[in-house]
Amino acid sequence: MHHPLSLKQQYLHGSFSNSYKPILTVESGDSITLKTLDIEWGYSTSKNEEYRIYSSREQEEKPQHPMIGPIAIKGAKPGMVLEGKSNDIVPGWYGRNWAGGMANWQNNAISIANTDRIQLDWELDSEKMIGSTSIHSKLFHVALQQFMGGSRSRSKRSRSPFYLPT
Question: Does residue 113 register a pLDDT over 80?
Fold first, then answer.
């Protein structure tokens, strides 16, 4: 069975807890289609659509990365390891990253923790798998490469398995 999940506030949280109630229960072999938020808890389907900010249903004091779920699997018991597959990972139209301006292991490693924060806004082409950004009026293009659960793929279609403890 296929389960499409739309972006809804009641599906989102920013921390792990086994006390969170499942938003969906699936059978082994079912598939799920979903969209994910960006790191700032926002989402927009296109340049022409308003960027919407979401928040965690769990109202954590300091939520971390946005997550969707949990999703229960019938018959799964504590201690089992479940195998999943990502059939299609399609990038959205935009991306953003930062460097500098704060102490963390990445910035400390390249000595930019005490510099001004730099932000790059990317436009992503999911058909050509290319990201484009401008730095000081110079345009840069990079090949997009998926990364999910330890598997890498240059195509939008990736069937590499990933494993989840229960």
Answer: yes
Count of other CB atoms within 10 angstroms of residue 128 = 11
In one-letter notation, the amino acid at residue 33 is T
Cis peptide bond N-terminal to 91, omega within 30: no
Alpha-carbon distance 95 to 39, whole Å?
9
Question: Taking the model in full, what pTM does it have?
Answer: 0.78
Q: Is residue 105 classed exposed, middle or buried when 0-12, 13-18 and 19+ CB atoms within 10 A define those classes?
A: exposed
Distance of CA 127 to the CA centre of its chain: 19
The residue that leads in pLDDT, 83 or 159, is 83
For the chain, give percent helix, strand, coil, nearest 5: 5, 40, 55
Range from 84-93, 114-123, 157-166 carrying the lowest mean pLDDT: 157-166
Q: For residue 80, give the 3-state DSSP assignment.
A: coil
- Whether 126 shows a pLDDT value over 70: the answer reads yes
CA distance 20 to 62: 17
